[in-house]
Amino acid sequence: MKLIEHPIAFRLFLIAWNQAQGMTSPKVHRDMADWLHARWESGDRRLLLMAFRSCGKSSVVGVFAAWLLYACPDLRILVLAAEGSLARKMVRNVRKIIEKHPLTGHLVPANAEQWAGERFTVARRLELRDPSMAARGMDANITGTRADVIICDDVEVPKTAATADKREALREKLDELNFILAPGGTIVFTGTPHSWYTIYANEARVEIGEAEPYLKDYTRYEVPILDAEGRSAWPERYSVEEIETLRQRAGPNRFTSQMMLIPVNVEEGHLDIALLRRYSAEIDYTKELDRLEIGGRRMVDCCAFWDPALAGRDASVVAIAFISEDHDIWLHRVVYLRKGSNVDPLGNQVGQLALLLQMNHVPLLTVETNGIGATLPKLLRKELGERNIPCVVMGRPTTDNKNTRIQEALDTVMAAGMLHVHEQVYSTAFIREMQEWTPKSTGGRDDGLDAVASALRMRQPRVAPGKAVGRRTWQDSSKMQTAKTEFEV
Fold this sequence. Notes:
alpha/beta, 2 domains, disordered C terminus
């Protein structure tokens, strides 16, 4: 749409408004204004403005919306926020700016009905069905709406990002914006990350199936409260000493996420993934010596657990971990089995699992026998026998509290730096589950976490039943092996 012939720069528009209100314009706001203006003038139509909490980014973007209507009165602007009340707050603020700014009084319409609280229409040339500006919450129906500019102001908050289901619903809602945005339109996101799996991440989260960042095509502008040299972004309001006090009060996760704009789980999780020791080495099995190593370290035991599921929300997960001679734990695989078709869902999973056990030289697998698991050990033994795979299968019910089981299995080994995790595991949902888990967690996604905890609790030496094709013996650390050589020493 056509702009007025000579609109003043947004920075000057912002300064004029602040002066009219008896306020100053701090450098952090002037820099935001310059960036927004430059991006608009250059034709960038996908913008992400991230700034620390209480920085005033929503206020600056509200003035920017007023400037856009001043420069092009025919624009239609939609404000989307996590809560409808927050979106309406921005719209009301923009309406007041237009009423009182020295450059926009002519935009106030003669018809009072066009000047409502959560939607208003300025005096414009075109007759359009949609108002100049409207507010919607994330739970509102936006079907049939059309907009030239969409402002997504703090759409990611704990209410919309605390769990995997909520984050998925948020993305589905935001995907609808492509259907209401006019050709050539602009979308501006403002906010701070509330999860490691934030929509604002600049790298794909492969463990949740992302091949690219959600906002991959967006031009980004980030304003953390401290720059790389440790200087305050708004020294007139936040001294370095006050920022340190804020850090202590907010806690490390919340401060890192909300003030430094680094994605982490905002809730103070109990299991710190920074304590994990990531590795990429694969299994090295020497048949002649019946010896299994990972990264040159000899493994002396293995604990593997299958927590099965057929349908519904629960995942069917297998965890395989090895124990090295120095008692460190090597979590080598966490696999979320495909549930397969309705024709043979059990057979599909059993086939996947048999191949997994063979590839990883697993000597013994424990299967949770609660519910559907009661019949699975027998089915799996049959499958392994037909494939001639030497692995013992044991059934075991679980009766203790899941959260207690997870805490007891992982707390100590993580704190001691004993838990090594293969990079394959980082591509699964396991890391996400670990980040979000707390001892009081209820109803969250924790199937992988539970399978790993159940496996680790069984890492003590066991006597397996004899119903198996045979048993691998590499884990017997007491065995002595003598290798024949063809050279003289």
